[in-house]
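Reopening: GTPase activating protein still failing for me.
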Amino acid sequence: ANVSEHGLPGSSASLEKMKDLLMTYHFYDQGELGYVQGMSDLLAPVYSVYQDEPTTFWAFAKFMERMRTHFLRDQSGMQDELDTLAQLVEISSPQLFRHLEQCDAANMFCCYRWLLIWFKREFGFEDILRLWEVLWTDYLTDRFLLFVALAILQRHSDVIVDHLRSPEEVLKYVQDLGGSIDLNDALKGAEMSYYKTLLRVDAVERIRAERGLPRFADNTPEADPQSLAASEAPLITLDDADSDSEVSICHTPQLPGSSEGDHSVPDGQHQEIALPQVSKAVHEIFARGFRP
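Support: Ran it again with your exact input. Result attached.
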């Protein structure tokens, strides 16, 4: 009675066990986090795979060692995730970032659910298992999740820039992508986005070094505003004809005036952009490198 027709827990008895597991974790964690909405999303796939309470509990406890900053009461962990994603967008897709700023959506709150629970509500069960296995390998970086989000946003940048004008519209559009994202293409796009961003960071840092500018801004409260102003990023010319000809990560809804699949840049066209001063958080992403 505790197993659905597909062999996975699905009855109310399973929900009771999940409640017990979450309550046990609350006491194990000595009440520091309490229960925060989203924890059950992280627990459900683990319990569905193991179907054994002790094994599930210890697996979930180890998972939460990695995820606990997402559930801090002061939201500092999630704010760091969103801020870092915002700069990755600014570095790799300046036009998209400028439009998000105009829409008052540059805080990346539209991606909050993606990052909080690792796309748990955007993919089917089997895809979630595959995605999480990839993320647990720390391929390229232990924040590879951010590049998955970045790649999906980049694939939909044309629709966002051409048709969305408010933070509510951006939020609704991004959240409605659930169920339409192809995981294989998303992971391929994330890897491409990682290397594209790395090349741009290397390019601007090379120029900064030539001009005697610091590597990254000191964004602490004690930072000198004059030193920040003096470290403006230079204009650099980059070939922006990168991965736009690849198959779209998501099946982009057809909106008036949109042309799905036609995102290429004319041959020989180069884009001159002013990269922001790369933050310490972004530097750390690329400094860690591949860890098998």
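Strands lie at 235-238, 271-274. If you still see a failure, please send the error message rather than a screenshot.
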